[in-house]
Amino acid sequence: MDNKKDILEVRNLQVNFKTYAGDVKAIRNVNLDLRKGETLAIVGESGSGKSVTTRTIMGLNASNADIVSGSILYKGQDLLKKSEKEMQAIRGQDIAEIFQDPMTSLDPTMKIGRQIAEPLMVHKGMKKEKALAQALEMMKLVGITDAENRINDYPHQFSGGMRQRIVIAIALINYPEVLIADEPTTALDVTIQAQILNLMKELQNKISTSIIFITHDLGVVAGMADRVAVMYAGKIVEYGTVDEIFYNPKHPYTWGLLSSMPTLDSSGDSLPSIPGTPPDLLDPPTGDAFAARNAYALKIDTEKEPPFFKVSDTHYAATWLLHPDAPKVTPPAQIVERQKKYAKMQQDWLDAQRPTTPVEEEEEQQ
Amino acid sequence: MDYENAEKILEVKHLKQYFNVGKADEVRAVDDISFDIYKGETFGLVGESGSGKTTTGRAIIHLYEPTSGEILFDGKNVDAFTSKQDQHDFRQEMQMIFQDPYASLNPRMKVKDIVAEGIDINHLAKDDADRTKRVEDLLETVGLNKDHSSRYPHEFSGGQRQRIGIARALAVNPKFVIADEPISALDVSIQAQVVNLMKKLQREQGLTYLFIAHDLSMVKYISDRIGVMHYGRMLEIADADEIYAHPLHDYTKSLLSAVPVPDPEFERTREEIAYDGSQENDGKERHLVEISPRHWVRAANDEVSLYKQRAQEASLIKE
């Protein structure tokens, strides 16, 4: 990433959903930056607010959503102040989305060539023939075999993996600046998932789109993301580069997420798990929302919400454990292993940076 | 697991399960598979969607009439019970945990009635008080509160619902439980809770599991042995650790190479191994061959030496 310019800035976003039982505080003060050409992964449990965040960016929230405060700056313009008509011009043109379920996100009654060409005809006013010709090119780009003969097929004639390629083709046909991928491979088998992820990386290199990647599969995050934001109960609790989050996590929730995934070499009688369930966002707890499930919770966690503490220029975590006065705790064994690996990687990196002068001196002596 | 003295609880012999037999759209969902499951072990069945793993599970619990082949449970053929009593016992001894905790619980029944349905059908409770006590004990076993028993399914989260499904399966004291993707609909943090619960129940009640899943890292964690299915056929069976460390079949290698690992450094250097499925359909006759002790691979006669060689390179065979 040479160009570090932010393309999308989410500031102090708060979203409530009005229900009969009261207001569900789905997003509680979220700040996000997306840089040009990067992949930002948002991870967290269902109900943590990952999808609501991106749906708010797209202006696709349900009608009972109430945006309490915040701004979403895209190229300096606040998307939250746009009218529905203005948003329609942006969606599918500047910001596009790949939806989770390839079985339900295509129109079953429309030929796929037409579905891929539609954004061109709508946004660019392109004539049908020309749009279909471009759709054909895009079909080849996303790896739909025998594209010429399949352009007039209907979605049901394709397998799940092929349908997800079609969904990707629709999202990319206008070369969007921002691509939101909401669990794009969760419904697919691992082998097909690997193909789709490779395809997304390849296309990102070609058209330098910025991607917001939502998933709960940390394995996928490790392979795709440049930076990671961890969400819990409507807030971001930790963010950093992919290496910082995976090898040097600081928030106990991130520890829990990473340790509860069995790696191919975990064994033993029981898997470390995060006890309990996420809090009810109708009435979010005071203090740290994770405190009730957190074995490392301090007294202050139930009283006062932790601010973000800086770990490095790119790495921040909202946990009182990082406060200078907090007691020192030892993370779970698996996390300690990861931190060791991180320390070694840092050392290797420093070694690689060190000028190789001693070797040159030897040569001069010879 | 001590396999030397282990007793077989389930034997699947040349099971074939075809649909639309004789029509143009005949589907050979399961095509001649054979394997055994031992008492007290967890046998993991993995494969892509359409590989026939769910059909195998459903055929074992006799939700289908097999096209051909035999399934022996405790030595008795489940397809040809001679007495009503045998049939009755079978339905009590084998239970199933379903994939979707949202669709598999009747929304109009209270939790206590869902859990007690099997108790009622099998007349396991002496009276109402006994029934209530059994239900409350079961809910406690799976980590729910007894106050939950008069609630409806919609009042629970996905993980809690899956616990209700487990309580229902355990209500009739089964010996053998088929778990068909029991955790794929759950969040990562909740998956670990449910897997831990299943392992604990296995230790306490000596259950045998057939664990069907596509999440390969979780399958490895819970299973003692693993079978890999593809195109309705069993391609490889071995101990969980061994099949991950030393897969012998090309398909298994390819499948394992596609699993994303939560380690960025590993991911940056990961290489996927491609697999050409057509090599399975070249008309050669293949069957499972024991290449090294308790490591079976589906092979044609002229391929055995290749797999033996691979096993030697992985030092699975000492020579």
Automatic annotation (TrEMBL), chain A:
Region (Disordered): 338-366
Record CDD domains: ABC_NikE_OppD_transporters (cd03257)
Span of the signal peptide: none
Any one GO MF annotation of this record: ATP binding
Pfam families reported in the protein's UniProt record: ABC_tran, oligo_HPY
Main location: membrane
PROSITE patterns: ABC_TRANSPORTER_1, ABC_TRANSPORTER_2
SMART domains hit by this protein: AAA (SM00382)
Subcellular location: Cell membrane
Lipid bilayer topology: Peripheral membrane protein
Superkingdom per UniProt: Bacteria
Gene3D superfamilies found in the cross-reference section: P-loop containing nucleotide triphosphate hydrolases (3.40.50.300)
Entries under InterPro entries matching the protein: AAA+_ATPase, ABC_Ni/Peptide_Import, ABC_transporter-like_ATP-bd, ABC_transporter-like_CS, Oligopep_ABC_C, P-loop_NTPase
GO biological process: peptide transport
Record has Nucleotide-binding as a keyword: yes
Domain ABC transporter: 10-258
Keyword set, alphabetical order: ATP-binding, Cell membrane, Membrane, Nucleotide-binding, Transport
Record's GO cellular component terms: plasma membrane
Family designation: Belongs to the ABC transporter superfamily.
Designated name of the protein: ABC-type dipeptide oligopeptide nickel transport system, ATPase component
From TrEMBL, chain B:
Presence of keyword Transmembrane helix: no
Gene Ontology CC, one term: plasma membrane
InterPro entries named in the record: AAA+_ATPase, ABC_transp_ATP-bind, ABC_transporter-like_ATP-bd, ABC_transporter-like_CS, Oligopep_ABC_C, P-loop_NTPase
Spans through the membrane: none
GO BP: peptide transport; protein transport; transmembrane transport
Gene3D superfamilies associated with the record: P-loop containing nucleotide triphosphate hydrolases
Keywords on record: ATP-binding, Nucleotide-binding, Peptide transport, Protein transport, Transport
Compartments, as annotated in UniProt: Cell membrane
GO-annotated molecular function: ATP binding; ATP hydrolysis activity
Location (main, coarse): membrane
Statement: the UniProt record of this protein carries the keyword Transport: yes
Domain of life: Bacteria
Boundaries of every ABC transporter domain copy: 10-256
Membrane topology of this protein: Peripheral membrane protein
Similarity comment text for this entry: Belongs to the ABC transporter superfamily.
PANTHER family named among the record's database cross-references: D,D-DIPEPTIDE TRANSPORT ATP-BINDING PROTEIN DDPF-RELATED (PTHR43776:SF7), TRANSPORT ATP-BINDING PROTEIN (PTHR43776)
Name the UniProt record assigns to this protein: ABC-type oligopeptide transport system, ATPase component
Source organism (scientific name): Levilactobacillus hammesii DSM 16381
